[in-house]
Amino acid sequence: MTAAYQEQNRAGLRLGAHLSIAKGLPRAAAMAAAIGANTFQYFTRNPRGGAAREIPADEITAWREVRDRADLYPIAGHLPYTVNPGAAGARQQEFARLVLHDDTLRVAAIGGEYLVTHPGHYDGDREAGLARIIQVIKESYLSIPEPGPTLLLETMAGQGKEIGSLDDLHYILAGLGWPARVGVCLDSAHLFAAGWDLRTPAGCRELVQAVADKIGLERVRAMHLNDSAAPLGSRRDRHANIGRGELGEEGIAAIVNNPFLSSLPLLLETTVSHYSEYGEEIALVKKLHSCE
Ligand SMILES: [Zn+2]
Ligand SMILES: [Zn+2]
To answer: Which of 3, 143, 146, 240 is deepest in the core (most CB within 10 A)?
Structure first.
């Protein structure tokens, strides 16, 4: 047994980053390999606009082969930030419905496991916003025949009228009737900004207990692993590079050594000027994981 094999088995981490599929899915798989990732996330379409690239059938065939060989699992599509199912306006509602529906099918077509979305923002009344989110998910996602990707609602920092606290996610899931096809994606930077102090093992345990109580651990399928440039409880969504923010190396170590959190696929969404920089951050996370 080689040292590399033992290392891989002992660590057992599913660790990756947000990558671009603009140059094709096989190219994204090569990028994942280059940075030492065994999972990745991508935008299903232009994150600030909405235009989607058509993925040709031969690209999907090549992708499925590459993916199996490289053991890339799981794969998560992320909806654009412009999608807001909580909006009251007819045009924004229509856009949210169209994108949620179409991108569920697009992720299903490449065999992706998850579709991550921000729950949305409310206009005016908070409960009306939550009700609109529940309605959009019912009509544009749950109406699609299985199999398909599991929809993951992301925990948010709670900036302004942003929906995405653990209580909000509980409310939405309850409103949907707790379907097995809807889960949750945690985000370490958002949770920290929302007031969860993840800088210590005890703080991480406290969060996991709250998630178990409000959501159920089996429903949590992924975590965005980001450091936070914004302070604890600031309700501001500002990602920092791993170990360089308010969580610091100690906080990241607390997260990646928590038995539950480290069992989740961990996806970096930190700011990099070139994807290869994720390689250094992934190496650092692996080092912090094996330190304890
Ligand atoms: Zn997100
Ligand atoms: Zn964020």
So the answer is: 240
